[in-house]
Design a protein that fits this description.
- The protein has 433 residues and is an alpha/beta fold.
- The chain has two domains: 231 residues, Rossmann fold, CATH 3.40.50.2000; 148 residues, 3-Layer(aba) Sandwich (Rossmann fold).
- The protein has 16 helices and 16 strands.
- Strands 1, 3, 4, 5, 6, 7, 8 and 9 form an eight-stranded parallel sheet that branches. Strands 13-11-10-14-15-16 form a six-stranded parallel sheet, sandwiched between helices.
- Helix 2 links the parallel strand 3 and strand 4.
- Helix 8 runs parallel beside helix 14 and helix 10 crosses helix 11.
- The two termini are 28 Å apart.
Length: 433
């Protein structure tokens, strides 16, 4: 079986975005376990992704969304790609990367959109990539699955049409928060196609061949992080608020956590360089906060998505502005505090924690007002109850996750046919939480 998959993958110049790689990574693992023999991944760096995952990798179609005429150019390119796929000549140059994608979909057994949070008008490139890939699947009568998405919370009217068509043409759509499920309904997507799920990467690396936590190198001491520890992942995006005030309040909070819990503070850059000598992305924020702290701390370099997941799961407490560090932590019943900076991050973090029975989402305004210590104290005081309750939720979600991956692969083996009451159809639309 040959499946074409798209995710936001491709590590260029040693800069990695752990969460984007993690969702695709887990899809590859789960597909292979269920007999998918060839995966064709669309990547920003095909050579790197091919080596990382052992897959066939192609460059994405490519859309140009900068400038005043961006949307018109993207719509024109989508039209030319689809008409070329139908046999119209002289619309694309012979070396256009779209040709390889067209050929891959035509010769595939199906198309999968890996989990993500990019179906929002902030990132029109991602919408056009996925909408065009979905349209190619329809053109060649290939089953399409859209897995583990956040929808919106903001879509322009034009993007709503693209996303609604994409989702409606799928055999199965996984949505990782209730607001995304409700938004999909408002877009006119048939409810029978929808399933409320957890994030695709929630259990990444849980069933590693060795069954053990892989070694994680500490960037400062070249040793494993001390335990017990609080893992911290920050981010540049703070919705236009004062970065100096953010740095000061964050340093105060982490000093408080270190003093009141006795935990080591371990920083992990969810988006950053894999090289210790290069500061990029989240690392820049971490360094600013670290410069204001009085407590000691450690820094762990990003390497692989599995190593990141295992680092989060082994923590005693997690504090994160980033989504996937929180996902990794709650999937092991680790008490977690998500710091939400806007409606988008509030939706994602509330969903991530809520899916595993936790609720400690801290608004950025509360952090900046110096009101974060009360929430962290409450979570730490209730850590035993949070972990105990979370363990049962984790077990339930793990079973549902196995069923969900079964249903996704079943959509390629037994495509839905009108009037065909197959076992696959009984899985579609099922609430998998």
């Amino acid at each position: 079986m040959r499946i074409v998959c798209i995710g936001d993958i491709g590590v260029t110049n040693n800069i990695i975005h752990i969460g984007d790689e993690a969702m695709f990574d887990e899809m590859v693992v789960q597909f292979r376990r269920r007999g998918v023999t060839e995966i064709v991944g669309l990547s920003s760096d095909p050579a790197e992704s091919s080596a990382r995952y052992g897959i066939t990798a192609l460059r994405r179609i490519g859309f140009f969304t900068g400038g005043d005429t961006a949307r018109a150019k993207a719509e024109d390119r989508m039209d030319r790609v689809l008409r070329s796929a139908q046999g119209v000549t002289n619309l694309l140059p012979s070396n256009d990367p779209a040709w390889a994608v067209i050929d891959a979909v035509r010769s595939s057994d199906g198309v999968a959109v890996a989990g993500g949070g990019n179906l929002m008008s902030t990132w029109p490139t991602h919408i056009f990539e996925r909408a065009t890939l979905g349209a190619l699947a329809r053109l060649f009568s290939k089953p399409l699955v859209v897995s583990g998405q956040t929808i919106g919370p903001y879509l322009s009217a034009e993007d709503e049409k693209l996303v609604g068509t994409l989702l409606s043409s799928a055999s199965l759509v996984g949505l990782r928060e209730r607001p995304s499920y409700d938004y999909s309904l408002r877009l006119g997507v048939p409810e029978a196609l929808l399933a409320q799920t957890i994030d695709d990467a929630s259990f990444l690396g849980v069933e590693t061949p060795a069954g053990a936590v892989p070694a994680v190198v500490d960037a400062t001491s070249h040793a494993q992080p001390a335990r017990p520890y609080c893992v911290v992942s920050l981010a540049n995006h703070i919705d236009g608020q004062d970065p100096d005030l953010f740095d000061a309040r964050m340093a105060e909070l982490l000093d408080h956590v270190a003093a009141s819990t006795g935990l080591d503070i371990v920083f992990f850059a969810h988006f950053g360089s894999t090289e210790a000598t290069v500061s990029h992305g989240d690392t820049l924020v971490h360094e600013r906060v670290q410069s204001r702290m009085t407590a000691s701390f450690r820094t762990v370099l990003p390497s692989t998505s599995v190593a990141a997941a295992q680092l989060a799961r082994a923590a005693s407490l997690s504090i994160s502005l980033r989504y996937h560090p929180a996902v990794f932590a709650v999937s092991a019943a680790v008490p977690t505090i998500g710091i939400a900076v806007d409606e988008y991050t509030t939706t994602k973090l509330t969903g991530a924690l809520g899916n595993f029975g936790q609720d400690a989402v801290l608004p950025l305004a509360s952090l900046l007002a110096g009101q974060a210590a009360a929430l962290t104290d409450r979570v730490w005081d209730e850590r035993a109850a949070i972990s105990a309750a979370g363990t049962d939720v984790v077990a339930t979600n793990r079973r549902a996750s196995i069923d969900r991956w079964d249903s996704i692969v079943a959509a390629f083996v037994r495509p839905e046919r009108e009037g065909d009451d197959t076992p696959q159809q009984s899985l579609i639309g099922r609430n998998l939480l």
